[in-house]
Design goal:
With 500 residues, the chain is mainly α. It is built from 21 helices and no strands. The chain starts with a helix and ends with a helix. One of its GO terms (cellular component) is membrane.
Length: 500
């Protein structure tokens, strides 16, 4: 753990509820600017600013899920028209873009600030998703997919960062609850695609000879609509809801006056009487170097101290395991069931999108339950991850016995419930225990590990043995491993801050 976190563990930072200057004694080390800002946020309390920021960050979760879901809807329709050799490798392009974007935007947010990078990220998603609708070839579609994913990957990393830096400690559970919006994003995308696929796409079994562009506009309309929705969310985020630059980032750059202005803006929006003055903050020298050496130093600082290094290693392992297990399981399972004669219904569009909508709605409940469980003292973040991770292999293993439509729908709902619940806690926990100065790149690095690991899924789906149940049970083992690694995490956020 870095020295700033150690100082917070070894003493209670003086309260600034009335805005007084804190008087340090030789008996305790001085508070850092970051801890003083956190005290100010506690004094201001939860209010309109945080709720608006949470809504803006929710847009990022919806946009992320729209990207991930739309690729599975676009891929089979576009492949009829373009006839690529390996159509199922299109998601690999998307995962690569998501991984690179998470790292690039993480670095940019720590070097240049949170606000601008956060605002342009979802705007980039809207532009390149809509542009993908004009793709004349399969190669062009891949280019637009990777560009949209690049901005999408960066967006989610910064969403977590900006919200974590402005929440009072006891409201940290909201970071986990945001994942419920994945279900909303999935359901909205499916409902939009339903009439478009039914009425404006080539029929099943069509080939590039019989499927022309004019007969296959449905997936293009879907991308245009998603692009427009993301543009609306981008405009609302930038102009209607808005945000001030993160005061913790400003403090890390030695910008005392800007830091005070940011804190007082949050107070004013929340209609709080709290006011911060620049003399409450220590003089702090900003890091002058912003070249490659500085970038490498930022990564190294994520592993500074035994406990911080241990938490980073555990988080990277968790994201790698999740990145492999979830997509391999979801991509491979359908092929396995069909190969073993499971009767999953008539395969009609009605059944497909009905099941999609139902399982997405159930998936929204998981993160809400997790947000409650992380506040239970005996569970907290780590044990909640373990609990939900253990539910995943039970449902995944049971899925191999599915023989009819009802069983398929029931277990689809349960696996969505446990997966989203587990994902929500992991996403919320990740920014909470990052060092303040390097939170964006820390989030970006860990999320990128999961995205890069997910590159394995399209290749396994393309060349895997659909008759073997081994990949499914390997995924079950990976889910169990996630639960075990979660128990090895060194601390809860309350161990750092003193309270949930």
């Amino acid at each position: 753990m870095d020295t700033e976190k150690k100082s917070e563990l070894t003493h209670d930072a003086p309260s600034l509820l009335e805005g007084e200057i804190s008087h340090q004694t030789t008996a305790s080390p001085p508070s850092t600017n970051e801890s003083l800002i956190q005290d100010a946020i506690e004094a201001i309390g939860m209010g309109r600013y945080q709720w608006q920021l949470m809504a803006s960050c929710g847009f990022g979760f919806i946009a992320d899920q729209m990207l991930l879901v739309s690729i599975s809807l676009v891929m089979p329709q576009a492949s009829k028209e373009f006839a690529p050799r390996y159509a199922t490798l299109l998601p690999a392009t998307q995962y690569a873009g998501l991984g690179v974007g998470a790292i690039a935007f993480g670095f940019l947010a720590d070097l240049a600030g949170r606000r601008l990078t956060w605002q342009i990220s979802i705007f980039g998603v809207s532009i390149f998703t809509a542009a993908g609708a004009a793709s004349p070839t399969w190669a062009a579609l891949n280019v637009f997919v990777v560009l949209a994913a690049f901005f999408g990957g960066g967006n989610l990393a910064i969403d977590l960062t900006v919200l974590a830096e402005c929440l009072p400690r006891r409201w940290g559970f909201l970071l986990s609850s945001l994942a419920c919006l994945w279900g909303l994003g999935s359901a909205v995308t499916g409902l939009i695609a339903w009439p478009l696929v039914a009425n404006f796409c080539c029929p099943q079994g069509a080939t590039s000879v019989t499927c022309s562009k004019v007969d296959n506009m449905g997936w293009r309309y879907l991308y245009i609509i998603i692009g427009v929705l993301c543009l609306v969310m981008s405009i609302l985020r930038s102009f209607a809801l808005g945000m001030t630059e993160s005061p913790k980032w400003l403090a890390s750059q030695g910008k005392r006056d800007e830091t005070v202005t940011s804190v007082n803006t949050i107070s004013r929006v929340n209609k709080s009487t709290y006011t911060m003055s620049s003399f409450q903050l220590h003089t702090q020298q900003a890091e002058s170097s912003k070249h490659l050496k500085s970038v490498l130093s930022m990564v190294a600082n994520l592993f500074h101290g035994n406990q911080q290094a241990r938490s980073m290693i555990c988080l990277i392992m968790i994201w790698l395991l999740v990145g492999i297990a979830y997509p391999v399981y979801t991509v491979f399972l359908t092929y396995y069931l069909e190969a073993h004669g499971a009767q999953l219904g008539d395969g009609s569009l009605y059944q497909t999108y009905r099941d999609w909508s139902v399982s997405s709605a159930v998936g929204m409940v998981g993160p809400i339950l997790s947000a409650y469980l992380v506040q239970v003292p005996l569970l907290g973040r780590r044990h909640t991850i373990t609990l939900m991770a253990c539910g995943c292999p039970i449902c995944a293993g049971a899925f191999t016995t599915v023989k009819n439509e009802a069983q398929n729908l029931a277990l689809s709902c349960m696996i969505n419930f446990f997966l989203n619940a587990m994902y929500g806690v992991i996403y919320g926990y990740t920014p909470e225990i990052m060092p303040d100065k390097y939170r964006a790149i820390g989030c970006g690095l860990t999320l990128a590990c999961g995205r890069v690991a997910s590159l394995s899924a399209p290749f396994i789906a393309t060349w895997g043995n659909v008759y073997s149940s081994v990949p499914i049970f390997v995924c079950c083992g990976l889910f169990v491993a996630i639960g075990v690694v979660a128990l090895a995490l060194p601390f809860e956020p309350r161990d750092i801050d003193g309270s949930l």
